[in-house]
Amino acid sequence: MIKEQDKAIKRCNKLIETEHSNWIGITNQKAIKTVLNMLKENSAEIHQKNTELAEKNAEIEKYKKLLADNLAKCVNDHIKAKHKADTDLEYLNIGWQLELEKKDKMIDLMAEEMKKRATCPLDDYNYDLDCENKCNNNTKECWKQYFERKVKDGRL
């Protein structure tokens, strides 16, 4: 279609030359000249608008890329923050486990020491139980149970 348009424009340009004025008429030449000028103006406007549109499209693509990059950075930051939080929680859990193990060892050592120095706690505190039979001759366990019951009953 562009070849046909170019041919038609060339033909019209030849028709407006002065040598053809005898058989085409000056009025027709002026009309053709006016139409050709209008076509040139329209073509220039279309070219200008296409250039502006291309610039706007390039700007839109630039902003799309910036948005995508920013979104990717935010997602990456959130992933890093979650990983750090998970790691911190894991270390905190390990710390609590170590503390609990330490306290359990302390309780065992205290119960062992009390076993060496004292009799069954159930005898001294009016428990109606036989320490040797209840704890199977393990006063360390009796002492642990005694303090567990005190904590459970809220008497400590």
Q: What does it look like?
A:
The protein has 156 residues and is mainly alpha-helical. It has two domains: 2-117; 118-156, no CATH class. Helix content is 85%, strand content 0%. It has six helices and no strands. It starts with a helix and ends with a helix. The mean pLDDT is 79.
How far apart are the first and last residues' alpha carbons, in Å?
Answer: 100 Å
Q: Could you list the spans in which at least 5 consecutive residues all have pLDDT below 50?
A: none
Number of strands: 0
| Largest sheet geometry | none
Radius of gyration: 49 Å
Share of helix, binned: over 70%
β-sheet strand percentage: under 5%
**Rough shape?**
rod-shaped
Distinct helical segment count: 6
Query: Pairing-aware structural class of the strands and helices?
Result: mainly alpha
SSE layout and pairing:
Elements: H1 2-15, H2 21-24, H3 26-117, H4 121-124, H5 131-134, H6 139-153
Helix pairs in contact: 1-3, 3-6
